[in-house]
Amino acid sequence: MSESMNQAASGSGGDGRTDPLVQLSLEQLRRRTSMKWRAYPEDVLPLWVAEMDVPLAPAVADALHRAVELGDTGYPYGTAYAEAVAAFAAARWRWDGLRVENTAIVPDVMLGVVEILRLITGPGDAVVVCSPVYPPFYAFVAHDGRDVIEARLGPDLRVDLGSLEEAFIRARRRGRRAAFLMSNPHNPTGVVHTRAELEAIAALARRHGVRVVSDEIHAPLVLPGAVFTPFLGVPGSENGFALTSASKAWNLAGLKAAIAIAGTEAADDLRRMPEEVGHGPSHLGILAHTAAFRDAADWLDELLLGLDDNRSLLGKLVDEHLPGVGYVPPQGTYLAWLDCTGLRLHDDRPSDGPGIVSDVAGPARMFLDEARVALSSGHVFGTGGAGCVRLNFATSPTILCQALARMGRALADFRQAPRP
Fold this sequence. Notes:
Layout: H1 3-10, H2 26-29, H3 35-38, E1 45-46, H4 58-70, H5 80-93, E2 103-106, H6 109-120, E3 126-129, H7 136-143, E4 147-150, H8 161-171, E5 178-183, H9 195-208, E6 211-215, E7 241-244, E8 258-262, H10 267-271, H11 283-295, H12 297-321, E9 326-327, E10 335-339, H13 362-371, E11 373-374, E12 376-377, E13 388-392, H14 397-416
Parallel strand pairs: 1-11, 3-4, 3-5, 5-6, 6-7
Antiparallel strand pairs: 2-8, 7-8, 9-10, 10-13, 12-13
């Protein structure tokens, strides 16, 4: 391993930073009881589900400690969460269009997506997604009786407007209502949509009578070199919706709370959301997410620098250990989409189809069985995903180096093994 990689693996940069990604040892992480660290045996390095290997941001921990000391564990109340998101959006993204009165608290982003789709579509209506995409986009939507229609991403992993328009036309056939469920930034590719792309999407949706619902859970996780644009901040988006939370950027998935935001023309739709939906979020979750957006921006900045370092380190490790595997550095999120189709390991795709997150097949199966590294299997992300894997690099450089070295040895052994 090169000297620069050794420095990265030790977490030493000599610049006085406090990188959240190097604060916890593997022994400490293995004491966690969350899904990431308990779904697989202890000899597996888990780089799959979207949890980060970081301690809580101090501001978030302080908010939770205060609540526990006060016994403040009752029902949620007020608009502090929406106000914190609005202030963050204005400061971070120069977007001052978030109106607190046009928001609603929902249990989490995906349950909020389902509730919004219930407001603007009915059973048998269509929901367009850009595949490959986050597996619950299939599972949650299909389980609620909507028809999922795919619009394949382009070869550059960006939205293909021609493919999207064809999907919109199919979705609206026979007068069906239709929605476009967008991942912004895109999961799993890490693409951050540009303002021009979002404006084109909004115009296309308007032309075809399609409502846009933008999942912006990864919005705070845009890495150096890219700029996040809220969908509701572009012309033509006024009848759309967005959802966000602090769960990905501050590692709060276990503290349920999210915000649904309506464009100015969609506010009346949002007000039709059943009151009981707002009973789902946890009061402690709302306190934690509010503290994250309001008081933990400095911690986020340190995290983003660490993720940027890991993004670069991962590119070097892929070059060193996984020749022939494609890696396009993500512009946002902490998720890397690795194209392993050249390994010819994707013919054993299970029959359950996209959205079945527990399935492990193809290269993900080989890396799990032979390298003891858990990755997300590409086929569950829909058309275009088979033969790929999603890797979560929000871990320490040490663990990242260990995992890629294991994967490299497994790949070398696989290539040397005799074929029937």
